[in-house]
Every structure is written in structure tokens, then in C-alpha cells.
Design goal:
Length: 337
Amino acid sequence: MDFVASHILSVTQFERVDIDSVFSVADRMEPYAHRRRVTRVLEGAILGNMFFEPSTRTRVSFGCAFNLLGGEVRETSEIKASAIAKGESFYDTARVLSGYSDIIVMRHELAGSVAEFAEASRVPVVNGGDGANEHPSQALLDLYTIRKELMGRSKGIDRLRIALVGDLRYGRAVHSLCKLLTLYEDIHFTLISPPELQLPENYVQEMQQRGHEVTISDQLESSIGHADILYLTRTQEERFPSQEEADRYRGLFRMNQTIYTEFCEPNTVIMHPLPRDSRGDAGELDNDLNENPNLAIFRQTDNGVLIRMALFALILDVVDKVDSHSREVSWNINRRF
Ligand code: CP
């Protein structure tokens, strides 16, 4: 695909070669994301960071990524802080906001909303998550993390064995990641969820049609023994008809150090798109795994900045200008972790 001036709405826009391009640009962003150099390549550009649904890492890391390229960020968070709460349409909102920005990232609770917004936008729009539908930048950063984690073990994404656990019905990060993985060779997907929260059938059919192996299970311990990657998810309670219904699934697939030691292969990588629900009875990913070196959740969030910088650089066509607008930083940071 041609990234320049494109909307990024769905991972179905990508072929493997496009993913390789994003990853190669992301690698080149490391000196800037790690604050060894600063670049002003997007000086004067404005990102409209429009989050109409709660977010910590997607909103902040898109903002950081734009700042790290030298651009400025204007944010709207929550519908009630925007004129959408007064009945303004996506069309009008997009026409207005795209006059104030050079690029827009948008998240909204309705599937398809970001695509509708993008149709009326005069500048490129990146999908920061639309309902239970897609989360393309999360899938790219997840795949980038998988590639990096496996590289140290002399493995690639082809022939990956991945177990996806939890709310696979409403989890948009899982939906986008599964679609991306179908572009690779001989993936073994193990889909572990309660029957009511299984991955929608169209995703499973596509995996099978493309020749991948799919195992469906509602048992955690007996299904995770041969995974390279264990990808856990939160119950997406905001998408359930009622809190009572969502609460039925709390704590069903609890991963902790004891279960990991007993049932996983040594060095299985543990991933989660976050947020993890750390309230007492949720327990999809316990804190006692925090010191486990195979826990990659904070490497995922760090990688998110690289991927989002790469997307901005590609869409705004500055990849080859980043270094020429750069200098070394004048401060010294020493992060503890
Ligand atoms: N993974 C993710 O989308 O996190 P946020 O909801 O905090 O953006």
C-alpha cells in the first residue's frame, strides 16, 4: 500500500511487505523514542488526538510519538467534552477538526465510526479503536513485539504457536492481531475462551481457509503447554449488555506464576494489550508475574511509541527527513527499569 496521506482504518489494508515497512521505520525511530536524539521533522504539524472512549496508552503514546517527531498535539477526550454530545454528526465534526489538524487519531465506541469520520475528513485518520471491531496500531505493535521477542530465540512469525485467552468475542486487539497473523505461514492458533466469548466465526474461517491450524478450547491449563506466545485479554465489560453479565466471566482464566510454571513451556512469552483488570476478583494476569522476564507487557507498551512514530512518519512522508532534522539530546536520563 501507499502510506502517504492514507487513512489507517483496518489491518486488512496491509500485506506482509507493508508490515515490514512499518517495522523497518519503527526500528529507525529507536534513538528518538529512547531520547538519545531529538528530531523536529514535524515542527509546525498538529495531531488531533480524538478519544471519545477511555484510553491511557493508545492516546498518550500516539501523542508522545507525534511530540517526539517535533509536532504538537490537541486532544479531545470523552464525548461529553465535545459537541458530539450536543448531537453534532461525525461528518460535521470531521470537517471541522480536519481544518485544525494535519492528521487525526480517533477512538470511539461504535464499530465503523472511525471509517465514517474518515470519509468526511480532509486529513488522514488513524483508527485508535472502533468498538469491538479493530485496533490496527495495537496489532502492529503486538506483532512487532512478537517478532522482537522471538528473534532472540532464532524464531520468526511464520510457524508461530500462539494461545489467545479470554474475551475473544469483543476484544478488538485480538481481532486485528488475528487478521494480521493470517498473512504469515503455518500459524497454530489456540483460542481459549468461554463458549459465549469465542472468536467470531468469520475470523476462524479465514484462519482455516488460509491453511492455519485452529484449536478451540474453554480450558486454560490443558491448552497452553505448546505456545510460544500466551496472549491474555481483559473481559471487555463495557461491550456487554449489563455489568451482571460481564461479571460472570471475571477470574475464569487466571494466569499467575504457579500456573505458568506448571503448565507453560519454559520461556513462553506472556503478552496482554492492557489495561489488565487488577481489581481483586478479576485476576486475568496476576502481579506475581511482574518480575518474570518472559512478561512482555511493558515492552509492548514501549514498542507502541516506535510503531506509532513509524505510522506518522510514513503517512506524512517524512521517513527520509527524520535524521536530517535531528540532533543529540542535551540532557541525560537514566531509567530504572
Ligand atoms: N491497549 C489499549 O488500547 O489500551 P488503552 O485503552 O489504555 O489505550
